[in-house]
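chain below, 291 aa
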Amino acid sequence: MDCVVVVGSSGQLGHDLVEVLRATDRYEVVALDHRRIECTDLNSVRAALLPLRARVIINCAAFVRVDDCEAQAREAFAVNALGALHVARAAAENGAKCVYISTDYVFDGSKDSPYIESDVTAPINVYGASKLAGEHLVRQAAPHGLIVRVASLFGKTGARGKGGNFLETILVKAREGEPLKVVNDIVVSPTYARDASRAIAQLIAADAQGIVHAANSGTCTWYEFAEIAVKLCQFSVPIQAVSSLQFATPARRAKNSALVSARLLSEFRIAMPHWRDALRAYLIEKGHLPK
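prediction:
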């Protein structure tokens, strides 16, 4: 069996990736969380990765607290850029394919339609800039590697660095009968971590290279996403659509961060489910809806 390593295995995407890859019975999957590898330390990276002789190394490790990145730019770049370079170099030294997980935050949001892989990148906050730097460094160190951009993730474990995910925050408040205010002027591609993991597993099997977007199909605003989730769970709470200007944050957010893949279906014949179907599957997985 080929060895596949998942760096950042305790995160929202990393957790599901480990489960999906193990379920294929094609790989020996090694899960490395922060306790076993420190991406910002090249010696730690080499000590953790080189003995494994992996065929594929997937780097899900990231500093994902977008607002904190504004005040902690050095730390953000240390993990998202320099850490990505360390992992890519170790992968190259090991003869392994490097897979780097990137983000919709590399775009500025000025486009009127979802972003494809070839669109010009122009991040508007530190997090996006650090992830784009990571992309460039990975491409330099591992030119035959794979960069997968995902967007607006929601998954069973929640984002470890954020203490959960948007959906769970909304559903907890709705369950308690608390009125909700949700922004209705930011367009996103909500993406189920399980679906993104399946797509990544298929891309690995296809030996994909370059940049690929892997987001659930369709777009919506955060308000529309929350509204459908609350209705599916049959909570009767008012939801007010508000402007993002009412929620001042240290980091700027793109008005449109939706992704669509120009490559996933045409080149690799991988179809991503619609976000509404992904949402229902997530709610069933979490026990909010019956199977």
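The chain is about 40% helix and 15% strand. The longest helix spans residues 73-94.
thats it, cya
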